[in-house]
Fold each of these.
Amino acid sequence: MIYYTSKVHNRLNGMDFSPEAVTDTLCLNPQYPVSLSKPCKYILDSGAFQDVSDDRRLSFKDALARQLKFELKLGQFAEAVVSYDRLVDEQKCETGQFKSRVSESIAEEYVNETVNASRYLSSKREILAPRKLILSCQGSSTEQYLRCLKEILEFAQPEDIIGFGGFCIISRSKIYEEQFYEIIKIAFPMIAAKGIKRVHLFGVGMFRVLLRMELEAKQYGLECSYDTSSAELNAVMGRVFDPSKLQLSAVFSKDEKNTVYHPAKLALLNIRTINHFWKDLESGI
C-alpha cells in the first residue's frame, strides 16, 4: 500500500509544515496553493471536491488546464493526474458543504459525467505523458458503481490507475463500508483482467478498510495506493497513530496544544509511523 499524504497547507498552527521532509509521496490539489521544499512524487487531484462548496463545475478542458497551471507554478511534473469526476458523496446546502450520498437517480447523471471526464483525460494521454492517468469511478449503488467502472475500462489502458471515489463517507455507516467491500470484490478481478496493475482510493484513512483493500488486491496482483489528510487533521486534535489499534488515538488534550505538543510536528510523526506500518506489512512483519 502506498500512502499519499494530502498536503493542503504550507504552515500548520503557525509552524512551517513540510510533510515531504518525511515522505516521498504526496497528494496535491490545484485548489490549495502549496509549495514543495524538495522534489517528491505526487499525484495531482482534480479539485472536484472543492468545487462542490463553490457550487460550480468546470469544463473538462478547464479542469485539466487548472491542474497543469498548478503544476507549472509548482515547477515539477506530477506522477499522475486525476480525472474530474462528479462526487456522489458530497452535497451543498445553505450552510455549506456536507457529506451525504445523492439518490441513485441523481447519481446516474453524475456517473455519466464521471465516465466522460475519464474519457476526456484518456484522450489527452499522449500530451500528458509521462504522467499516469487516474481514472476515477463514482456511483451511489453497487450496480451503478460497477457500471461506471465497466464503461471506464472500455477505454482504459494497462498503464492507467483506476481510482475509487465516492467513499469519503465510508466512516459514517457500516453500510458504506460493506458496500465498498462488495464493490472491490467484483471490481478487482475486472481491473486485473484488463491488464491494469494499480488502484487508488481517494480520501479514506480507516485502516481496517485500507488493510482489507490491500489484502483483496494482492489476490489479483494489484498494487494499492490511497490519499488522506487524516494524519494532519488528527494531529491538530492531539491524536497519534497507534499500529496496535489500527487507528489514530487521542494522546494529548486540547489544552496541551502548542505547549506539550505542536500539531505540525505531531503530523510528521503520524506520517512517518503510518509509512513504517505499511512497509512492515509488506515485509510480512
Amino acid sequence: MRRLLLLLAVIAGLTVAVTPVMAATTFHTREIGTGLNAYFTNAVWDQDGNLPNGSYFETQVEAAERVATGGFGYAEATVCVWHNEFTILDGNLTDESWFGACGPYDTLTVNKKLASGNVIASFEAVECLTWDDTKGECIEEVNLGTVAIDVTATGSGPLTNYHGTGSGGASGQYQSTYHGNGSYREANVTGTVTLDGASLIAGAPQASGTLFKTKSGYVDVMHQK
C-alpha cells in the first residue's frame, strides 16, 4: 500500500519535501591563567560618596598570562594600564581625560598560593583615534609615549576559591556553556607606573589590588544549515 501511494504521488507530479539536517560543529576549549591587578588613586570619598573640590586621578594596572588549548586555543601575555584624570568643582565633574593601552610584559611572577606577585613592563602606548566598523580595524592611531610599569602585590587577605557555570547563545545558531574554577586574594600594592618618565600614580594615598588564578572550560557549538 505504501509503495502504491508513493507511485501515485510521483504520477501526480507532487514533490516530497525533505527537512534539511542541521550540521553542528563543537569546540572544546580549556583556559588556565594567573595574574594580578592594582588600583591607585588620590580620590578619597567621604561617607556620603562626595569629593571636595580638586583634581584627581585613577590608575589601574592588570597583568595576566592566559593559555587556552582546544577549539579556540591561544596564548596571551599582556599588561594593560588605564589612567583617568578629572576635576571636581562644587560636586560637578568639570574636566576629564583618560587613556588606556595594552602591551607585552617583560616579566610576570605570581606565587602559587597567591602570596605575592610582580609585573615589569615597558611598551609604547598607542591609542586608536578612528575606528572603521566596516573593516573592523583602527585606521588612525596616535602614540602617547612609553609606559613603564614595575608593580608588586603582596597578599593581605584570605584566599578565596570560587566555582561558576553559565551558558548563552541562540538556539539553532550558536550556543556556549562555561564552567570555571579559580582563586583570588586581596593584596597590598606598591611600585611605579610612568608615561615618558612622568609618574601616573604620584601622591596616591589609596592603593589596592588582587592576585588571581583561573582554570576554565568552554564548549561552543556552531550550527550550520
Amino acid sequence: MSTNKNALIRYRTLDRCFANPGKKYFLETLIEECSRILLEIEPGSNGISRRQVQKDIEFMESSDGWNIELLRIREGKKIYFKYANPGFSINNMPLNEVEIGQLQSAIQILSQFRGMPQFKWMEELLPKLRQGATANTNQKPVMGFDSNQYLKGIELLGELYASINQQIVLKVSYQDFRSDKPYSLALHPYYLKQYNNRWFLFGYNPEQEKYNWNLALDRIITVTQIQEPYVPNDQVDWNEYFEDMIGVTKHVGLEPAIITLHFKGDTCKYVLTKPLHGSQRSKWLDTNLLEVSLEVVVNYELKRLLLSYSSNVKVISPEYLSAEIQQELMSSLNQYADKEVKI
C-alpha cells in the first residue's frame, strides 16, 4: 500500500465522506471527491481510479489500517458507504504504521529548523510530535500535555484546518449555550484558535456580514461543504486581533481599557512568573501586595479569570469592572446565606 502523502489525503477524504450524515456517498461519488481534493492540492494530478478507491477502503477496514466498521447500504442497483458508528472517525484512532512513518519523517525535517528565531514555536511542538510518533510502541511517555482528548468537536479540527487552507465555504449546524436546538449558518473559515483547552473557529458570516464570527468546536453539530464563492479575509489581522485580549471574545467596538489589580499573598509570586497577559506591568506596593496593570478589552474571559483568584485579588479600576466582580462575588456568597459558616 502506498505510504505517500496522496494516500493519507485519500484516507482523510474517505473518512470525512463516511462520517457525513447529510450525503450518500456511492463509489462514483467517492472517486469524484478524492479526485477533486487531489486536484486542488496538486493541479497536475490525474485523479484517482476506481480500483485505487476500492483498495483504500480495504486498507482502512484492515488491521493494518484503522479496522473501520463500514456499512454498505443498497439503494436500487447502487451501494453507498457510511460508518456503522456515526460518531466514528480515524482522527480519533491511535496512529497506524503509515501515519507514524509520515510523522517521523516530518519531525526529521522540522528538527533542522530548531534554534532559528522564527521557529521558536517548534520548541513546544516537537516534543508533542515525538511523543505521538511513539504512541504505538512500548516506549513509555515521559511528558504530559495539557489537553482534553475527550473534548467534543475535536475530531473536526483536521477538516476545518483543511477547509481554511483550501478556501471551502461551510454550512455549520451549531447550538450555542443559549439555544434549545441547533441552527444553521454559512461560514467562510479563516482561523482556528485554542484557548483554555477548547478550540474556536473564526470566519466570515455572510448573513451578519461579520468577519470575526466565532464558533466553539464543541458546540458544532455537523459541518458540510457549500459550493459557493469563497470570500477571502482582507479585514482581520489575526496576530493583532488577539493582542489586546484574554480569551477569544471581542465584541464589535470594544476597545482596550487600563485594568489595575491588587494581588496579595502567595498569589503575587504566581502572577509574576505566569503573567496574565503580554501587557502586564507589575510593581510591589509592599512585601505582601503586588499591583498589576493590564491593557486589555474587558470581556467574559477576563472576568472569569479574575473571579478564579477569589479573595486573592481586588479590582481597583476601572470602577465598572470592580462593581461587576463585586456583584458576582456577592451573588456567589448569597447562595450560602442560609448556612452557618465556621472558620
Amino acid sequence: MDLDGKLIGMIHLPPLPGAPRYGGRMTEVVDVALRDAEALSEAGVDAVMIENFGDAPFPRGPASVETVAALAVTAARVGRSLDIPFGINVLRNDGRAALAVAVAAGGSFVRVNVLAWARLTDQGIIEGDAASLLRARAALGATGVRILADVAVKHSAPLARVPLVDEARDLVERALADAVVVTGPATSAATDLDDVRAVATAVAVPVLVGSGVTADCAADVRRSGAGAIVGSAMMVGGKPGSRVEIARARALVEAWRSAR
C-alpha cells in the first residue's frame, strides 16, 4: 500500500476476550467493527486501522493468544466487507501479533508504537525489537505489509533525550520502518506541525500525523505533506473509544480533500 498522503480512519474495538471489561459476546465486537468500517468507507477515507483500544490496561509484552485470535476473526470480517486497505495495531506494542493478524486476514499495514529505541510508559519500560519483526515479516513472505513506526510515541517518555529527527532517521535507516508516525503527547492531543515538517525533511519515507487531527486543522496537516491517522475526531462526541459518527467523518474527509 502506498502510504504517502493517505487518510486512515481508526476502528477502536470494544474490549476483547480476556480484557477486564470484555462484555462476553464476540458477535457484538464484530458488529461494532463492521458498522465503524462501513461508516469510514462511506465517508471516503483511504484506509482503516483496527486497534484493540478497549483492552486497557495493556500488557507490556506480547498480547494474549485470545486477543490475537479475536483480532484475527474481527479483521477478517472487516476485510471482507471493505474495498479499501486495512491495517492492524496491537496495543501496547505487539508488532509481531499485528503482523500475524495482518497476514492471516489480508491486512496491508501494521503500526508499531516502539519499533526501535526504548520508552518509559504506563506499562513500564518498552524496548523496540525491530530485528525480530523484520525477520518474521521476511519469513512469512509478507514484505508487502507496510510497517508504520511511531517516533517519540504518545503516552510515553524517553529514557534519554534524543533529537526527534535523529530518532526518526534511525527508525527508517536502521529499523527499516516503511513510514513514520508523529504524534502529540497523548490520544487526541494536537501534533506540532513543525515536528512533522522536520521529520519529513529528515526521512525518505511517508510521514503521518497520528493524533489531534480534526476537521479544523485537516487541511493544514495535508498541506504539510503528511498523511494522517484519525480516530477521536471521527467518533461520537470526539471521544476516543466511541463509535464512528458518519457526519463527523464526512466533515473531516471533506476538509482533508479540500487541501488539494
